[in-house]
Amino acid sequence: MEGRIRKRIRIGSRDSRLAVTQSQIVIEAIRKAHPELELELVTMKTTGDKILDKSLDKVGGKGLFVKELDIALREGRIDLSVHSLKDMPMEIPEDLPLIGYSKREDPRDVLILKDGFHMEEECGIIGSSSKRRVLQLKKLYPNLQFETIRGNVQTRIKKMEEQNYNGIVLALAGIKRLGLESIVTRVLSTEEMIPAAGQGILAIQGRRGLDYSFLDTFLNKESEIISTCERAFVTALDGGCSSPIAAYAQIKGNEISLQGLYCEEDSEDIRIGSIHGEVEKAAKLGETLARQLRSGR
User: For the modification S-(dipyrrolylmethanemethyl)cysteine, which residues carry it (predicted)?
Assistant: First the structure.
């Protein structure tokens, strides 16, 4: 079966509503291009979904969101897995390569506030598990306080409604995929809030040696180039969960531009820079901007 298109494809996913919705996007694309294939969705709860009382950098980083799916891929219980690229570790196992990427959904972040709360005028508490988001929001709203909040989209919304949070920050891509745009209070521009690397892009991970040609009509070349640039920037900065890092690349014609943010661990000294060049040099551009920001240039 290795190396050939199978008649039955098992797609692995985290069991949150958003993860399942994103996996269904991939399933529908495969079904449209290859109606002859039998498709099965296999969901599972990852370690990252179970540990909600600690920040990711204290319990093992983003790898906790893929651990169980990686094991299932290796054991042949699934044939591919679907992830939000921003949640993927920078180091990808050689035997479980990233097959490709979806077209990018809106990469911006959004604020969701309790009814009647005006963050420009009042002090309040905003929930976010992302140092990247917190540091950038502090510049926009110095009057606010920030506390850690973990969980999937619905869990965070429920915590905001029931606990001592005046608002939360989430990725617009997930909100749109769940059809929840009506609860968004404010969309933050990419200049106000540089997104996480890969935000809005779905990554498909597979097992080395299998034939994934049935994905050809779904995979997006522009997203591949953008992802290469953004992830090269993060990798060059040894990016994990401990240091706030943001990266946002855009392609126009044969040129790619990258905006990056870096802040050393336990510091609030944000360094922001940009670079542009030919798309063929996407990875090199990411690495170059990382060096510039790290050296303070």
Answer: 241
